[in-house]
Amino acid sequence: MLLIFCLSLVFTTGRCTDIQSFVTKTVGVGEDVTLTCIRNSGSGGLLFWFRVVAGNLPEVLGATYTFDSGTFNETPRIIAKQEPGTFILHITQTKLSDTAFYYCEEIVELRTTLMNISFLAVKGPEADITAVIQDVPPEQVHPGDPMTLQCSVLSESKEKTCSEPQRVFWFRAGSDESHPSLIYVHGNNSGKCEKMSESRSSQKCVYSFSQDVTSSDAGTFYCAVATCGQILFGNGTKLEIEANISANCDSGSVNTIMLLLCAALALSLIVIALLVYTIKKNKYGCFNVAAAPQINATVTSGVQQRQPTEDSLVYSAVNFTRKNAGVRRAARVVEGESTYTDVRVLGYE
User: Fold this and answer.
1) Average pLDDT over the chain, rounded to an integer
2) Among 162, 170, 173, 347, which residue has the least CB neighbours within 10 Å?
């Protein structure tokens, strides 16, 4: 317990010094308690009363001077004041929430001293519950079926010291072992209570919880009873849903179908690519075959066009006779000249 107090100081104030021991005081709920801290009236300093709850910062409940002073601090249930040679902390009508560490701190000339470290344990009335029993659900449950869980709370009223009503909660922990989650809360006096035949002081209260089953309800259901500051859990009811097995099978079938569809799609893309390539290749070959006659016709036409060019040439020889003037030319030899001409058809070379 001292370790817990020291850790609380370390994580809240960052220090833990001069702690040798502490005193434990146990009181019942509703009782009064007084804690005392020695006060040196001859020094000039300050005194504080602190309360430390694990996980929280220290709480100041009262403060005063070390020398005599009339100052005091008062709240509805807590009073911190000076008395001769002491600085007391008085708590009236204690509650369970008053369970904590209490200590007095003296500060003189910047030196801090912890005094009268006390652990106050407030004990509440004991619950009269003797057992919490959960009924076993049907073996086969399917989605959509109605489900009713029952929680039986056995109590012994012969030595009942707590008059606080019972509050019943239902929790569910998933099949993946996750933390339980609250799913339902019963109102006060919502259970069916009856006296047990074996003993008139014994009582049995049955709390029922009903809902339609869904595929996500698989897990363990717990019944918890809160009363007199205590919480008691049942043994738990494990619910298995038949649909979970078929769902796993369906999931595997879906994965197989998806794999087959992807393979079919890939095969279709390959076939389409091959068809496109074949069509383009055949189209290119047909184009070459169709273009060959045209080229041959063009060459033949050119040859035929060149043939008339040579046939259309006409060669002719023209003779011109030149005579000298005078009568006496009859006995002379006639000299002749030849001239050649080229006639071409328009449009041909």
Assistant:
1) 75
2) 347
Q: Tokens at residue 128, please?
A: 């009269």
Average pLDDT rounded to a whole number, residues 120-143: 78
Token readout for 18 is 């001069």
Among residues 316, 333, 315, the alpha carbon closest in space to that of 324 is found at 333
pTM of the model: 0.41
Alpha helices (runs of H) in the chain, residue ranges in sequence order:
2-13, 243-311
Q: Which residues of 39-78 are buried (b: 16+ CB within 10 A; e: fewer)?
A: beeeeebebbbbbbeeeeebeebbbbbbeeeeeeeeeeeb
What would the two tokens of residue 130 be? 């003797």
Phi, psi of 334 (to 5 degrees): -80, 125
Nearest-angstrom CA–CA distance, 289 and 245: 67
Place of tokens 């434990």: 24
Q: Look at strands 72-74 and 78-83 and give their pairing.
A: antiparallel
- Spell out the residues 6+ positions from residue 347 whose beta carbon is closer than 8 angstroms to its own: none
The pLDDT score that the predictor gives to residue 340 is 61
Last residue of some domain: 73, 88, 123? 123
The CATH number that applies at residue 17 is: 2.60.40.10
Nearest to 67 by CA among 50, 45, 49, 48: 45
139 DSSP 8-state letter: S
Q: In the 8-state DSSP scheme, what is residue 233?
A: E
Amino acid (1-letter code) at residue 80? A
Closest by CA to 229, choosing from 30, 61, 24, is 30
User: Judging by beta carbons within 10 Å of its beta carbon (0-12, 13-18, 19+), is residue 225 exposed, middle or buried?
Assistant: buried
**Domain total for the chain?**
2
Residue 258 contacts residue 230 (beta carbons within 8 Å):
no
Domain that holds residue 148: 129-241
Total Cβ atoms within 10 A of residue 191: 18
Question: Do 10 and 111 fall into the same domain?
Answer: yes
Residue 12 Cα to chain centre, angstroms: 32
β-pair type (202-212, 219-227): unpaired
Whether pLDDT at 6 is above 60: no
Taking Cα atoms as reference points, which of 139, 145, 141, 172 lies closest to residue 241?
A: 141
